[in-house]
Amino acid sequence: MELTRRRWYLVAALVAVLAWVAGTAFAASAWDPLRQATVVPVGQPIQTSGDDDLAVLTDLPQPERAIRCVARAGKKRIVVPPATVDIVVDSDGSRWHLLGVLPDAPDEARIVCRPRDDQTDTARYGTALTDLSSRVGAGKAIAWGGLALGLGLAGATLTARTRRMLSHD
User: Fold this and answer.
1) How far apart are the C-alpha atoms of 70 and 109, rounded to whole Å?
2) Strand 67-73 vs strand 110-115: parallel, antiparallel, or unpaired?
3) Is the predicted pLDDT of residue 149 greater than 90, yes or no?
4) Which of 3, 93, 96, 161 is 20 to 30 Å from 82 by CA-CA measure?
5) Can you tell me whether residue 151 is helix, strand or coil?
6) Model-level pTM?
């Protein structure tokens, strides 16, 4: 294999881009367990197994109202980070929209959601336990590993081309 040809730069870029696309697609599939989860109405204590992520959902999306959800476990209050993507879950004849995900949810937590404007809220809220983190880590590894492989191939090509040019001088 002769790494002195310019086309190896194209191969390196292609490897990096394809790995990034594959890693992103693999990480995006991490939401599949949530789409198939059963949504339980808020108000009941949540029994987690320790590694579960707690998804908080609503049946009425209200992005202009800035809904804030808090997990209460004893005296601890943990703010549920807002979702960065809009995931829709169909459960028991209702359509639920993702508000946020709390990684490694505490056991016996209760969720309370309120809009920041403190006006009357007609939305229902629910929770679903799922494992979202396992595929995300593998997707990141694929993406960053492919990028590193592409950069390594580009660096090896540059080194081989430079050595060849210096040897002909």
Assistant:
1) 10
2) antiparallel
3) yes
4) 93
5) helix
6) 0.68
In single-letter form, the type of residue at position 133 comes to: S
Question: Could you read off the pLDDT of 43-56 as tens digits, one per residue?
Answer: 776 777 667 788 88
**Residue located via tokens 């880590």:** 137
Long-range own/partner contacts, residues 94-98 (CB < 8 A, 24 or more apart): 94/39, 94/59, 94/124, 95/59, 96/39, 96/57, 96/58, 96/59, 96/126, 96/128, 97/57, 97/58, 97/59, 97/60, 97/61, 98/34, 98/55, 98/56, 98/57
Q: Of 71, 34, 41, which is closest to residue 55 (Cα–Cα)?
A: 34
Dig out the tokens for 100 from the structure: 């946020």
Q: Tell me: the pLDDT tens digits for 69-108?
A: 888 877 888 888 888 888 888 877 788 888 888 887 777 7
CA distances from 72 to 79, 82, 111, 113 (A): 9, 16, 6, 11
